[in-house]
Amino acid sequence: MVNKRNKLYLIILMLVSWVFLLLSGKESLKKYLPASMFMSLLVYSENVFAERMKWWTITTRLFPKVNGIMPFVIGVFLSGSVWILKFTYKNFYLYVLVNFLVDMFFTYPFYSLFKKLGVWKMIHLKQYQLTVLFFIKSLLMYAFQKYVGDRLYSRIESPVSK
């Protein structure tokens, strides 16, 4: 019963994230989706490594053979990355501050709630270490947007005439 309830929570979290992703606007999606997808791929890869290293475990899975991080990767991380970039990109200090606050929220109250629900738990990683990991990934996402995402977007916006 608890597992079914947790799956429902994850599905609702994904659906709400997708609604917010669509609300970000077509231009924001074109501009920031590549960096957000990069972040999602990074989070997925990190989770595969982290579970092998026993940093944490995700106990609730939507589907038995699908990695437990997927609802977060294709939901809240993807959508949240687009929104954070939309409102803070080009203002690095604001970007760092917003990411730090979001990371702290995810690391402490959000993690505590999901641990209590039995969705996931940290094993050999401490919460402050998770915050540092999130912060490092946020810097990588900013760099990706600056050096790759902006170039991709400029090519989409001004295609070369034939």
Give a verbal description of the structure.
- The protein has 162 residues and is mainly α.
- It has one domain.
- It is built from five helices and two strands.
- Strands 1-2 form a two-stranded antiparallel ribbon.
- It is globular.
- The termini are far apart.
- The mean pLDDT is 91.
Give a quick summary of the entry.
With 162 residues, the chain is mainly alpha-helical. It has helices at 2-23, 26-52, 70-88, 92-117, 127-157, and strands at 56-58, 120-122. It has 5 helices and 2 strands, in the order H-H-E-H-H-E-H.
Fill in the keyword field for this structure.
2 strands; 162 residues; mainly alpha
- What structural category do the secondary elements indicate? mainly alpha
Order of helices and strands: HHEHHEH
Distance between the termini: 60 Å
Morphology: globular
Order of strands in the sheet with most strands? 1-2
How many alpha or pi helices? 5
Low-confidence stretches: none
Spatial extent as radius of gyration: 17 Å
Q: What is the tally of beta strands? A: 2
Round the mean pLDDT to the nearest integer and report it: 91
